[in-house]
């Protein structure tokens, strides 16, 4: 095992051409990366993770500072470095029109790996990634998780000493993510230096070493356990909450002793300020049981950046209560009945039925390609069902789509507003599209600018906004017509934890007013915000229920207190097992 | 609902004018083409080089050579001394045209017997050489007629109708009105919709009460506005800057512009309907633009095309608009001439818009 330093960085600063003198992509970064361990490079989008990766791979020239990779200067010894470093960017350059094997051969050719060495490596890599069965399949036809594994295999051709993985877990479901993790662990155990960049702090928590970044700076470097230990005693779970847990959360966040809080199933998880005892006096009446729990890295992150938002939403005061017309069943404001969608022979959504009641947050979860997005798109009218019904507010989307669409707000996963228009123009546009005009339009736009604190950015082009404000603007545009239903498609992927909490405080305010929310997500802790979860797998709804119920369903002696991710994985494994038992293909 | 469409149109225009680069993208080709096109694509021959092998020492031959030298079409005259040299001059592209005056030219001319002057044309530059050759033929026949000393019983007097001095700017500018506005309109309709698809804003629009039909109108109207603005700028420049006469009615030209822009926006929307990305839309625009200019009659007369291509040319909106533009500018087109062509444009618009709407609608429902 080759122990020792793989990367050493000192005083590294980088600025991109378009950035002003005060802005930095990286600001005075110092870091060392050891061989034989996985170093987590964690932080929200825009924290500087990719820039740092590219500097280590010798693809960028730093503005100032020192960087040494495997004893080499990444720029001067670039050609040697490229043979010894494996870099897997976020969108790895797989050739989708080539087969798995052809992709591997291509990367072997590029790295000059030939003859017997090539055969041996291919054998090992295909074993390792379990892609033997798929060597003849086109890379474009692989699932997200398999693509990522193939990307990893291609990166590993030539046996690099340093492996740089830029957010390998993005768009990969928890099962594939676990597999990928196990593979990388095995590589590190053989002595490879691995850098795993991620925006998921739960992922970073598992790394051997951690470099926590925010806004171009390293805010912590060391073992993640150190941060967890520091927070011990400050993370608590308020159980057996009486009344509305969202109201409870808001009240708790208003207390000076509480720096952060999230909903976790039926309970609320709080992080206390340093040296604070649980505020039993203020909260005890509604939550008789407040118990300490194991801290998470996210708790530490929130603490390091100075605490989360206070849970209040300026939106709350401006919203009218959603009134349901008498003929609509409040138990089924959104209803799917035997919803089925085929693409050729492939059944993406297979006889899915569920209903969502007024004021509920309903989450759709599932592995990639399971049919979650297809179902979601049918429910908001972007895709027509092959058979079955999709109804919102009692209106069938098939028959009077425009009328139904006036009832729903939609926020896409990707920022999808007009980037080259100003904030105010975007707001005015969506107000106009939803039929507001004249003074009511002016009033609504002004109100949104105020509620979401966008006033300052009024004239800024939407594309130039900081991520958190883009998020707010998207939500503001989706709420322009005060829809009773809100559809959110992975609304907070890539967003930092603070912004995510703020986003959910707005959602909580909306739900309080009777807005019904349907959301898809990859974040397990976001799933915990939902009142109910529908788990989609192979096009079918395999489980529906409150998050805590789903957890209880999988709890056993070996795992008495499963996390939601455990529940997710076990429910899917059970479904696979049931299928196998029934004689179907696994 | 019209308010929502107005909102869409206002948004589209705001996006177009949002950056200087966009405005420059729309205006620069206009200005550049306006300055360059009329000069670069002139079909006139000026200052062409001619090689002359004069084997006749007589005064008549010298007079003919002088006449040619005096014509504005011809610049340098290369005197050569053998047939080989004559061929070589053309071969080396020193001359566009070679002329051989036989030894008995002066004698036969004075005798009144027929005499032949041989011309060698550079076939590689057939167009320019043909034109130069026709100038030479004009000069020699006039010359011969004078020498013959007798009035021929009948003579062809050529006069170029509508463009008496064969000023090629007159021919090019009205066509340019059509060609430039084509680019602007297609960019707005085809590319901007493809961009919305790429950036996900199209989905965002589809979840609003807007239907694909409204979204199409929201794209078509700005496209028409852009095309008509560009066409008007060139038309104005043609009249006021280049002095091209305007013999028709202004409202007819505007009507023709509108009909053409409508047909184009149909084509643009159809392209965007079948393109998944901006890149594809861009290729689509090119696949339409190039053949449409070639088949429009701008470069070669439609009458000379094979029947199949003539048919294609008839469904090409540019053919009709170039004919209309030239007609209204130069030939004083009246209603009788304008109506059929404008109707053809409206028919093309109806078909393309209908098909584009079908495609969009089907996509939105699938």
UniProtKB/TrEMBL annotation, chain A:
Gene3D superfamilies: P-loop containing nucleotide triphosphate hydrolases. PANTHER family: ABC TRANSPORTER G FAMILY MEMBER 20 ISOFORM X1, ATP-BINDING CASSETTE, SUB-FAMILY H, MEMBER 1. Pfam families: ABC_tran. CDD domains: ABC_DR_subfamily_A. Residues 7-240, 334-563 form the ABC transporter domain. One of its GO terms (molecular function) is ATP binding. This is ABC transporter ATP-binding protein. Keywords: ATP-binding, Nucleotide-binding.
Automatic annotation (TrEMBL), chain B:
The chain crosses the membrane at residues 21-40, 170-194, 224-244, 250-274, 281-300, 338-360. One of its GO terms (molecular function) is ABC-type transporter activity. This is Transport permease protein. Its main location: membrane. Residues 129-363 form the ABC transmembrane type-2 domain. It is found in: Cell inner membrane; Cell membrane. Coiled coil: none annotated. It is a multi-pass membrane protein. Keywords: Cell membrane, Membrane, Transmembrane, Transmembrane helix, Transport. One of its GO terms (cellular component) is ATP-binding cassette (ABC) transporter complex. Gene3D superfamilies: abc type-2 transporter like domain (3.40.1710.10). PANTHER family: MEMBRANE COMPONENT OF ABC TRANSPORTER YHHJ-RELATED, MULTIDRUG ABC TRANSPORTER PERMEASE YBHR-RELATED.
